[in-house]
Design a protein that fits this description.
heterotrimer, A: 173 residues, alpha+beta, Glutaredoxin, 5 helices, B: 123 residues, mainly alpha, Helicase, Ruva Protein, domain 3, 4 helices, elongated
């Protein structure tokens, strides 16, 4: 009994401290990326141009959904990379988040439009349904299902580490 | 940030009409106040919705109000949020297979320790 | 120039502390050597204090050639905050921590006589601990780094949330508590090394331990109070990882001082006491590690790199593992020969140790579970208030029931409790009646809340009987212990009632509008622009009137600080013994009205009052502490 106690008194703290060593030195998986898969939530909104847009636009399709706004500074930084992706033939749908229509259109005219279409989510209701907490965020949608949700700016490094593995697995684009 | 509200009716007999959320009764307001303390602000380093004024927190609060008015249960509201913002949005870890240890270990430890103590005692 | 001198003095101090430590551990203990160790320590201490004094001077005189001072202070700050900016971030607060550690050791050196068999060894161990921290400071967290050749004209700004008197005192008080437990720790280790179980190390450290406990208690209370009035969400404890990591040493410290008095009185539970002294200090160090390594996200943690975390973890592991190995080796020497009688006072304290141990375990579990979970399952999980309250409520309740029974218990004798004793019957029935009254009048639904109120009153009444017996019949009970436990009862009652009775509402108000909330009528008088030396503000004036005609004006603000553009909410609080009226303003809505958040926090002042009362009992105990009171009494069976 006494021996057991002595053993416990030594081994428990040592394993505990070892655990912290491991936790401190491990390489974290890419922060900001979520790989939960789920169906795209139902929605009924307008595009920036004023046309109605529904789930049908997304069902069964493979595309990127990029959450952005004219007031979002990081989106401006991310923008050139989106243009590059567009040139590579990747279909990008925009989710204009809590923005003024005119400001958004002016922004696209000024900087360029990487989007095939833009969902105008003034209230952010679709964004909330998607678990969006701000801009920019990007979703990879395969066959109408959300497969990757990335919070933050997409650049070359992020694209290669977060999105490419998911895309290659499916043999898309 | 745009919040769309109905105008407050100042002379309304409903005491809760001054609340920006326009609850129908005090129980709803109490539910809201409790829920909002148990859900994590998705954008803050740490802190509940109650302690955060970040835009996303405000949006979530409105959504919770809406769901309360739609008579959704606390369970349903928490599920909605955890499905979209991660299970780490809930400050109360759900009682599931991988959290059994978390919830039971303290009590099991107490039981074992007290048992050992009492069985070692002389009369 | 001055910063280089300060830096050099610290290096010098490090060398001298190292010498002091080496003298103690490698050379036989003659009187000459003991004096040498004491003197070396004193010299090392003086160099360190001189270094820190110079550093304070550098901060007070806006010397921005020092990188740390330039990053955390500026010319516009009042002198009070220029100095306190030293402990507003990692490097400086570490420096303060070490200075406090050295001060405790210096006072110990001064007060304990040279003839004490443990003194030199204790000083030596302390010196080595100090060296470890000084090396950490100098090698990884150097506060003496300079910006050359051209220092900035002005520094950065401190986070406005830190520019507050309570927050100036809170870290130093906490640190004094944390490092204070290095004395019992070093003593315990010295005792283990010496291996002579006749040495009464517990008696030697009792006063020191209680003083350190007092600082910890006050430090945590200050933090809670500050968080309440500054952060704007109206809570006093969030179970944030950094709060938890301060709570754990406090729990261990409380268990330790109880176990300590048993070891002094009847030479029992000595194993527990030593283990607890190691645990308290380890948990203090662990807390420092968690906060400074960046391993846990918290608003409170100092942003840091893993390299510092690794060093700290390594240093702490070294201390903990060597202590525990020593403990295990000497285990049989310290164990008391006599068995503890069932339900004697000693027995109750050992039960107490188990309860506190389980609580510490639970907090540690809650803090580390998310880390482990994320590592294993690559998924984030949060463990927050609901978990901790669910675990603490039943366990604290159960512990308190044992406490109530323990009041009658005797040293080294079995408890002969008669449940029909007058004090027991009166206390129980009165508490039950009071609880039912509260339940009825205030509609308190939660079972645990009601039970905590019941138990709280039971503790208070039970001890009041004992105090009565002390005064009337001279039946001995330690009056300060009684006060401290009654404060505990008060704390439980306050926490429960605060939780059950408090209410809040988010309202919208236009200027000149009046709304009713509970028994108050709130008139939104005005909203104005205002400013301070480093911020712009919007200030709302609200007139609050109660139904019995009393009125008070509250002016919450929203401030925008120039340097960082940071926006803070300043709460407006009307405090009274029964409740706080707590108001903040939110944003302006589309229709021109303003969001006003109002909270009625019942009995919240009593929560801090209970904690302060507990500390006060401790202070009285220390002041009146006489060695003769604790002579060993032979047990009568």
């Amino acid at each position: 009994m006494k021996l057991l106690l002595k053993l416990l008194i030594l081994t428990v703290p040592i394993s505990f401290l070892l655990m912290f060593f491991v936790l401190l030195t491990e390489d974290k998986s890419y922060p900001g990326a979520d790989y939960d898969t789920y169906n795209f939530p139902k929605f009924e909104l307008e595009t920036l141009a004023g046309e109605k847009i529904f789930n049908s636009r997304i069902e069964g399709n493979d595309l990127l959904l990029n959450v952005w706004a004219s007031w979002c500074i990081t989106c401006r930084v991310e923008h050139p990379y989106l243009m590059k992706l567009k040139r590579q033939g990747i279909p990008i749908l925009g989710l204009n988040y809590k923005d003024e229509r005119e400001d958004a259109i002016e922004w696209l005219n000024k900087y360029g439009n990487p989007y095939e279409d833009n969902i105008y989510d003034y209230k952010g209701s679709l964004a909330l349904d998607l678990g969006v907490t701000g801009a920019p965020e990007t979703f990879l949608i395969i066959n109408g299902q959300v497969v990757v949700h990335y919070q933050g700016e997409v650049n070359e490094m992020v694209w290669n580490e977060v999105f490419v593995p998911a895309i290659e697995g499916e043999g898309l684009f | 940030m745009k919040i769309i509200f109905l105008t407050v009716f100042l002379l309304s007999a409903n005491l809760l009409s001054d609340s920006i959320y326009n609850f129908e009764n005090e129980e709803d307001e109490l539910r809201f106040n409790t829920l909002v303390k148990e859900i994590r602000c998705p954008k803050c380093t740490s802190g509940s919705l109650s302690s955060s004024s970040a835009p996303i927190s405000e949006d979530l609060k409105l959504k919770i109000v809406q769901m309360i008015k739609e008579n959704k249960t606390d369970e349903e509201i928490k599920d909605y949020i955890s499905m979209r913002f991660g299970i780490d949005s809930l400050y109360e870890p759900e009682f599931r297979t991988d959290t059994y240890f978390l919830w039971s270990a303290p009590f099991i430890l107490l039981l074992i320790a007290l048992t050992i103590l009492f069985t070692r005692r002389s009369g | 120039m001055i910063v280089e001198i300060s830096h050099f003095l610290t290096i010098l101090a490090t060398g001298l502390f190292l010498l002091s430590g080496l003298f103690a551990t490698f050379i036989n203990n003659t009187e000459y050597i003991s004096n040498l160790i004491a003197r070396t320590y004193s010299h090392a201490f003086f160099f360190l204090i001189a270094s820190f004094g110079l550093y304070v001077w550098l901060a007070a005189t806006d010397n921005f050639s020092v990188l740390y001072i330039a990053s955390h202070s500026n010319t516009n700050l009042p002198i009070f905050y220029k100095i306190s900016s030293i402990w507003s971030a990692h490097e400086g607060s570490m420096f303060l921590w070490i200075v406090f550690l050295a001060i405790w050791g210096f006072i110990f050196n001064f007060k304990i006589s040279q003839s004490n068999p443990l003194k030199s060894l204790t000083l030596g161990i302390l010196s080595l601990v100090i060296v470890g921290f000084l090396l950490f400071l100098l090698l990884t967290s150097n506060p003496f780094q300079t910006i050359l050749p051209i220092p900035p004209i002005n520094g950065a700004d401190i986070n406005p949330v830190l520019q507050d008197p309570a927050l100036v005192i809170h870290p130093p008080t906490l640190y004094l508590g944390y490092v204070g437990f290095s004395i019992p720790f070093a003593c315990a280790i010295a005792f283990l090394i010496k291996g002579n179980s006749d040495i009464e190390w517990e008696l030697m450290v009792q006063k020191w331990s209680i003083m350190a406990w007092i600082f910890l208690t006050i430090g945590i209370t200050l933090g809670s109070w500050w968080a309440y009035y500054e952060l704007g969400w109206g809570g006093y404890w969030f179970w944030d990882p950094v709060e938890n990591v301060a709570l754990m040493p406090w729990l261990a410290a409380t268990a330790f001082i109880h176990s300590l008095s048993v070891s002094i009185k009847s030479k029992k539970l000595r194993v527990w006491t030593i283990l607890l002294s190691i645990l308290v200090f380890s948990l203090s160090l662990f807390g420092a590690f968690i906060v400074r390594s960046g391993i846990i996200d918290s608003v409170h943690s100092f942003a840091n790199d893993p390299e510092r975390g690794l060093y700290l973890l390594g240093f702490i592991s070294l201390i903990i593992i060597t202590s525990l190995i020593l403990f295990v080796l000497r285990f049989s020497k310290i164990q008391s020969i006599e068995r503890i009688k069932r339900f004697s006072k000693e027995s109750f304290v050992s039960i107490n140790n188990i309860f506190f141990g389980v609580l510490i375990f639970s907090v540690m579990l809650g803090v580390t579970y998310p880390l482990i979970y994320e590592y294993l399952f690559n998924q984030k999980i949060s463990v927050g208030a609901p978990f901790y309250t669910a675990i603490f409520s039943p366990i604290v309740l159960l512990a308190c029931i044992f406490l109530i029974f323990s009041v009658d218990s005797k040293w080294s004798r079995r408890l002969k409790s008669n449940l029909l004793d007058l004090p027991v019957v009166v206390s129980t029935t009165s508490s039950a009646i009071i609880t039912l009254l509260f339940l009825y009048f205030f509609d308190i639904n939660d079972l645990y809340m009601n039970l905590l109120i019941f138990v709280g009153f039971l503790i208070i009444l039970r001890y009041m009987f004992e105090i009565y017996k002390l005064i009337k019949f001279r039946k001995y009970i330690n009056p300060f212990s009684a006060i401290a436990h009654m404060a505990l009862g008060l704390l439980l009652i306050s926490i429960s009632l605060n939780s059950s009775l408090s209410t809040e509402r988010a309202m919208s108000l236009k200027i000149d509008e009046t709304v009713k909330y509970k028994d108050l009528s709130i008139n939104f008088q005005n909203i104005n622009l205002s400013n301070g030396s480093n911020y712009d503000a919007i200030k709302a004036d609200l007139l609050i009137q109660t139904t019995d005609g009393k009125s008070v004006k509250l002016s919450p603000e929203k401030r925008r600080y120039f340097t960082r553009g940071q926006i803070t909410t300043e709460t407006a609080i009307h405090a009274s013994p029964i409740r706080d009226i707590y108001i903040t303003i939110g944003d302006q809505l589309d229709d021109g009205s303003w969001v006003v958040n109002i909270q009625l926090n019942y009995l919240i002042r009593w929560i801090w009052f209970s904690a302060i009362l507990m500390s006060f009992a401790g202070i009285l105990l220390v002041i009146t502490h006489k060695k003769s009171t604790f002579t060993f009494k032979k047990s009568i069976s």
